[in-house]
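Box 3.1 A note on notation
Throughout this textbook, protein chains are presented in two layers. The first layer is the amino acid sequence; the second is a token string describing backbone geometry. Keep the layers aligned when reading.
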Amino acid sequence: MRIVEAFIGLASGIAVGAGFVAFITVLGIVPRLMQLSHSESKIIFYQFAIVAGVFCGIFLSFSDYAVNITVFGLIIWGLLHGMFVGMLAAALTEVLNVFPLLFKRIGIDNYLFTLLMALSLGKVAGSLFQWVIFVK
């Protein structure tokens, strides 16, 4: 029975991993990030960072290992997570052109930057509120 469970777990992991790679590839996050930062020659570091991040995430998700870090380390950790989620959301909206099309449709395209900043700051404020008030 353990062999069947291991096979199902491996197949599920491969399916999720392939979906993650397809998602990152379709969004074009890494090429766009390299283009914006003018660091096309550092592609090997981007590849290593993605693979290392995935393996660290797998390890922390499936092990009982607890990470004990200081408040400063927690701030850095949260900043890195926020950067990842923000870049993922920005890449998704850039690929789909969601906000520019929506704002143009409803006639407020002159306020695009202001509304995007309001969305970003609102997301940050909401996340801080959740972590400070509800997570103890």
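The chain has six helices and no strands. The mean pLDDT is 80.
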